Amino acid sequence: MATIRLGDEAPNFNAKTTEGEINFHEWLGNSWGILFSHPADYTPVCTTELGTVAKYKEEFDKRNVKVVALSVDGLESHKGWIGDINETQGTTVNFPIIADEDKKVSELYDMIHPNADSNLTVRSVFVIGDDKKVKLIITYPASTGRNFDELLRVIDSLQLTAYHKVATPANWNNGEDVVVSPAIATEDIPSMFPKGHKVIKPYLRTTPQPNLD
Ligand code: BEZ
Predict the structure, then answer these.
(1) Which of 51, 58, 152, 165 is spaced 20 to 30 A from 204 at the CA atom?
(2) Which residues are annotated as active site (predicted)?
């Protein structure tokens, strides 16, 4: 198992999922992707997480993001549990869940942390860009459900900063002012950011979010 770091190509794999066999890179196509693991089927926090992801489909679609979940449970288990998720969370699961019984993908992505649990995956999230590079890695323990609003917020930042020479400050939300990249000289800001800018310090320059009308 190699360490996966930001900027690396997301390792490719073939896997069985609730929506058929996939080759990860082919399945991603030209989309961004989220690969996220959960510890086990038929568990309470995971049930709320997968229901939440299903409800956010429109938000992921708007951002051109495909989502795939994973646990080390088998296909029959996943399929039975989807019924419970739909029933209890008032939704329809609309993304594939990988059945990683042989732990091939979990090991490839280092999703099993033996000092937390020797057999089950932790709550890993990998955001993968449309260039197949890893853009974000976050890891939560089994006891803490993820905040998927934060995930959308980060994707907004990742997609904005991939295409514009800006960075997003603490607690930034889509629509708020952003920071001009330190690599841009202050005298070049007006031509690059015609909506205006503020120089708070020579290294701290802000501008309205450039990709909004
Ligand atoms: C849960 O999803 O509720 C859960 C799974 C494994 C350990 C603890 C909680």
Answers:
(1) 152
(2) 46
Q: pLDDT (tens digit, 9 = 90+) per residue, 108-144?
A: 999 999 999 999 999 999 999 999 999 999 999 999 9
Q: Is the CB of 48 under 6 A from ligand 1?
A: no
Superfamily grouping for domain 164-207: Antioxidant, Horf6; Chain A, domain2 (3.30.1020.10)
User: Residues of the chain whose pLDDT is less than 50?
Assistant: none
pTM, two decimals, is: 0.96
What residue type is 75 in one-letter code? L
